[in-house]
């Protein structure tokens, strides 16, 4: 059985050997190790893919042994993921269709090892796409008057469908602090600028106004501060004086969908870790 | 004789034909036309390379005729540059040698059609490079106490050597408003971030702190507001969590020198025009 | 009425002025000029967007005048396209859906000013996409035995629907010489390598075998020699030793669709000219 | 004491644990592990940075123990490098100065942890650069008549100076099979195309002729077959119809020097391994 273990802990001598020795002792074959030391913070990060011949009850046992033999003595925060368990992703959209189309066509072709129990939108415009891909669609309007009501319905759906993480595919609405707290580093947004430049509304207009020669897109985990969460992936494309704002938007669409899909894939494959509002990306 | 004409004026019907017809009538052969219309501002930009069989006195005549027949009726701001006249560039440096080395080796290999009458620095460290390339070097210290004195010496040198434009090759010092006024859109700086992100001091440290996945460099014309002038050229390179600030600085050096050299070459070839704090780049 | 004129002819002094003067004289306002001189071949290329206040009968007159006053004396090959006339594109596909999806979603969002009268495939697999976008689908099998029959049906369809150009969106079949002759420089293919490397079958396998660090995709006009026609657009992406052939294919899909869509847009906007098996791209 | 161990061996279960356990047992602290499995070939690759408190005699002991306890039982090919030992690099040049300048300025600024005991050239043109950087220069002409003589002098110099690897910085001469045999996967060349396209002479001319939209440069280990050795690093840049062959050469120079410097740095940092004419790059 394939497992992925993610660890971070204070950096200390011998830590790689302790972990690899433990896995070996428990009958696991290590397939791939990634590690990183943040020297400033003195923190060690590790991602470990292993193959165990054991069955699930044994793995549960393994969890307890890991906790006692490694996690407690070395002050680790850690998680273990079974390869057989696909994370469950909620897709929040509004009116733009390029990101949702790109994600769903990758999902459809088997590129993304994920479950998508539902799509939610504050408008009904994209319901037809949910229908095309045979995924339940929930229309949860989000006007000023019914914000609290919307939050309740969102939380109810997230709980009912046992959602692991949320993807905002140009959702264009603020996620409430309560939901952010329920899904820490588990809400992925796409912002249409190379952050931290042009945070906030209308970044293409601001980029045009400033006369930049390169525009970008940034996918990040959502935190309470707008567009300031840990960056997962960014990419850019060149523009010239001859491009209008409309051209920026068109070129930007191609960036947005690719950057968001890359970030979502990294998250699904459990290749992202977060510390001090920054990501470690084991790609 | 090869000439380059740069024009901007209110956009109006027929303007391309008026200009091309004028050149043809005066015995010029148009080699290359670039043009751009800023539709928001209603401004027309043109760059025109022509070959005249005439000699220099005739060209002077041409200037007057252009002024009367085109510039005044169509409210043009314009300039005419003889291909035989190389612009005169002053190079301001401090302690970093990568940008000056890159510029001078391109100059040495004939890539840049420019005169470099002198190199100026607030430190003596790089005098050896000026010596290597046989260019006069002026050490003008720039401490708090002697700022005014430094400005006077700088202006005296710029005037004495009949300088056309200034390149700040990681000069790291503020250029005084008086000099900026003397050289409007004629001072080229390299800033080590993808502006407008991380303007000001220590941009690599700020980029590291924010956890960006891409770093950049920006070459721009200097205006009174720090790092806010018209952008000439930008480029970027990918970074990961595994890169330290020192890595950012090393990777950034390669960006800085290439972006600055490209911007300088565009300026030398008179392929840049400025309007509303933005550039039109005819590349 | 907006028109685009494409010209190539022997290079000669004054040619830009002759053309721009003609347009002006006929009441046209030149919006945009692009030009290029191939100095080796001594050939001049021009693309000219103009706005005429006249109606269509006048434009027909214009064509005759252009022919007499410019094309004949200056030995021009030229064409005039009315902005109101969208080119008619046939889409040939096989079993892969990523390129057709990308093209049709851009078409759907108004990015491509084209008519798509039909989609043709040698398999029935992608008929559902034609249905989704409400475009007639023709299944024309292409096995060894019925190649001639297939060619006849293809030609009949191309004529019946008055097709201007053909896009091979991973069609994977050889286009017959007869059809290539009917559509010279009007059949656009996407090849999944940075040509001329890895022409022919299975380029990702060959790239993997060679151990390249960059893979690419190339869109080109189809000529009789396989994968050797004029290149319209290319792009690349980095790979490492850690990527499998399957990873190459997945990453390549993202390249293929973007490179093909860019090439198709350039063709639709009449920004491509072909000479000596090379393209001039006025982008 | 810092050490780097490079291993490749048949892939087998538990191999990571065996190695990491061994290091730990011998008092080493593992700083960084990279690994790769070539699934087709069934080969395991590993790069391991460790810190030992021990002194050099102990490390010699370590080598023997590693050989007995790991290398023999697991059929490893392996090497151990002390962090304190800089590899010794010979620089072969001809008349172009951009690559040598780039390498030496990085060397000078401390970016490359290498010794450069001498520079060799078949021409005397670049002796002044060797003088600038205070490195012995050997002029070894290489005309048809004295090829054997040249080879003897080259080998004598390589042995006298105890050279570990050779960098061909646009050397433009064929390296003899005898020298290739003496330095297997230890001669680094820069070829001015994105191999395998345009192998052999005059690649920029061939690229221009073919009308490509992207040009490249490739750094590879030299093998007997010309331009066919394992690729270490590649990069590309865009070109258009407007670029002449001379422009290709100028743009290419910037690529060549950066790609070669990256490859040399990877080799110096012992981050390259070679298998089946392909490289594993642990960057």
UniProtKB/TrEMBL annotation, chains A, B, C, D:
GO terms for molecular function: formyltetrahydrofolate deformylase activity. Residues 4-75 form the ACT domain. It comes from the Bacteria. It is an enzyme of class 3 (hydrolase). The keyword Transport does not apply. Pathway: Purine metabolism; IMP biosynthesis via de novo pathway; formate from 10-formyl-5,6,7,8-tetrahydrofolate: step 1/1. HAMAP family: PurU. This is Formyltetrahydrofolate deformylase. It comes from Arenibacter antarcticus. The lineage of its organism: Bacteria, Pseudomonadati, Bacteroidota, Flavobacteriia, Flavobacteriales. The gene is purU.
